[in-house]
Amino acid sequence: MLTLLLACTVPCGPGTHVEGGVCVPDAPSDSGVGDSGGDADTDTDSDSDTDTDSDTDADTDTDTDTDTDTDTTPSWTVCSDGTGTYSTVQAAVDGARDGDTITICAGTYDEEVDVNAVHLTLQGAGATSTTLSSSSGTSLTITSATVSVSALTLGGVAPERSGGALTAKDATVTLEDIGVNRCESASGVFAYAIESNDTTLSIDGADIEDNEVGFVMNIEGGRGLTLRRALITGNSASGRTSSSGGGILLAVSSSVEASNNLVYGNSYSYDDLFKLYEGSESIWLWNNVIADNDYTGSSSSGGAVHLEDGEEFENNIVSGNTGGGVLVDTASSVTLQYNDMSGNTGYDLKASSGTVSGTGDLTSDPKFTSSGTGDYSLSGFSPCIDAGDPVAGYNDGDGTRNDMGAFGGPYGGW
Q1: Phi, psi of 389 (to 5 degrees)
Q2: How many angstroms separate the CA atoms of 348 and 340, rounded?
Q3: Distance (Å, rounded) from C-alpha 260 to C-alpha 211?
Q4: Whole-structure pTM value
Q5: Are 58 and 114 in the same domain?
Q6: Do 102 and 43 share a domain, yes or no?
Q7: Based on the domain organization, do 60 and 79 belong to the same domain?
Q8: Residue 388 maps to a domain
Q9: Which of 42, 163, 175, 297 is the most exposed place for a label (fewest CB within 10 A)?
């Protein structure tokens, strides 16, 4: 008996138990290892689902942030028929924030728009289809603001010392691919910095035609003017009796760079067409055509260009003007070189006293392609081809030496 008891007390192996004095396999358990593994898989799937949801939430947050950033610089639309965000330009300006763009639909807007202390872009649908022109005042006045204007036409009727199209004070203004038509102003289509010396005006691509003004441009004071690739024709600067200029006045402490402009077929009755007034700072006129303009006054002045002191005048063509060519006051202080001055009534080049001459200047017919039809490009027979300043920085777009006139030099491709 003792021997039997000792045998029955021997432990059974794993997965078995004593039953009836012998070891038998254990019955399957609901909480066995296999089920436990299934539970683990289930937990793992749950974690995976949680992670996926988390990633989805993160993506959603990212999309929300992107939308918020876009909303900070919206583009407002102005359409006169009411289909835009606004129906008037002034309403859009009043509702705009710094950095906004205002897109103006095709149409004519009879408004006097004031932009004050904000940074904006005004974008038209094209200069031939979008017009901002006030019938009773200046169409656009910009004060203490930074404004870019493009693809529209400006006009207006303004009093003395205001621009018909634009008046700017303490502002930075960029005009690109614009038209300026049918302005009436005792001052000009542009008048700026009249009450300050802190305005900059940059114009690249302008069609300035058929305006009746005291000056085409009245630039008094300011940090500077850049005028490039402008067509200035058909304007009347007549009837003015002031001694401060008759046609285009670039004046009084202004720094000016004017290049690749075509100025022809304008009439003026007092003083000079292009007057660079005493007190002006850096004046640089290069690669312009000033031709066939009509002086209708009776004073001894009336030349196409009047250089007073310190100007640089090069690569220009001054031809066929009835009031005279280029008049120089202080010959020793003017840089005059590589210009064609020819065919002007009275004189092509003269000094107020003494004599004046320039380096590389011509007095030959420039042989335009068809000046009678407004084509002032150079024909293949022109002596002005490859006759501009030989310094490489003035080269034409094809790398050859500078051609005199509005279509030569690095900015001549227009």
Answers
A1: -55, 125
A2: 9
A3: 21
A4: 0.79
A5: no
A6: no
A7: no
A8: yes
A9: 42
